[in-house]
Amino acid sequence: MNPFYQIHSTDLTSSSLRDEINTRGYALIRDVLPLQAVNSLLRDVTQMLYAEGWLLPQHDAMERLANMDAACGDPDPAFKRVYQEIFNLELFHALPHHSSLQRVMKMLVGDQLLIHPKPIGRLIFPHCERLVVHAHQDYQFMGGDPQFYTAWIPLHDCPTNVGPLRILEGSHRFGFQSHEKENLHVPQIPPGRELGEGWVGGQVNAGDVLIFHSLTVHAASPNLSKELRLSLDCRFQDSRRVLNPSNVVFAGESGKSWEKTYASWRSDDLKYYWKKMSLTFEPTKPEILRLAETAASPSARAKFARIASQLD
Ligand SMILES: O=C(O)CCC(=O)C(=O)O
Prior knowledge:
Order of helices and strands: EEHEHHHHEEHEEEEEEHHH
Oligomer: single chain
Bound molecules: 2-oxoglutaric acid
């Protein structure tokens, strides 16, 4: 596998960043986020995982040494419960809004930046093949306008054996690629059927940000270490482009809500920030209300009803 193309954040210009993303489909930007900001979130996350017994006792939680007796992942109920606590952390939501990251994303997207409000946290136990995220394009999951970008942010140095993301260079230029869904918890592009120019990868460190286009094929590397791999990924776009409303609401059955997410936050600054922006949803609310009546299955109708009820 070839190494990532990398740019240092201090050498970055809007045109160099746009050129790299247009040509390669990604850019690894070194030293974007101050370590103190990344470490603060890492501390909160690892304290929680330690308290839950996911980390070996008698070791510093920041070492992230996995207690394999607790190994789990999505969709295990034990995982979902702990994940929910991590998702509710104020710093988990604050990191994608960090001014240093916004500066970089505005170079790519322009000043009308929309930061999607639901970052995804990855809590990846080692040596668990079923937890490795396989090849996919984010557009498959987010919908909306394909002109959005993902920032993948490790919360600690991530050498190749700890399972960083890898990227299929140039794959964004092959359009939307077919994902297999049958008998899979998460749709994926079948191995060998991904279209692109060649996989690239390498170590990604705390403070670095790996940015890629919504159509860029990417996958995680296996975590072959003794540590949990902890990262966050978040999406960014021009706020004038359409957005799938499921990116701002909780469409699932679990009863998650923004009220519950915010329950222990100290500051109101980032609560409901996207509601103050003029966003164009696709599908629109009337279309979703219609789907809540007409979708094929009862579970799809219930999902659309939940989405509509959260869109005001
Ligand atoms: O971190 C991972 O394991 C997967 C991340 C991913 O697929 C993404 O950022 O879209």
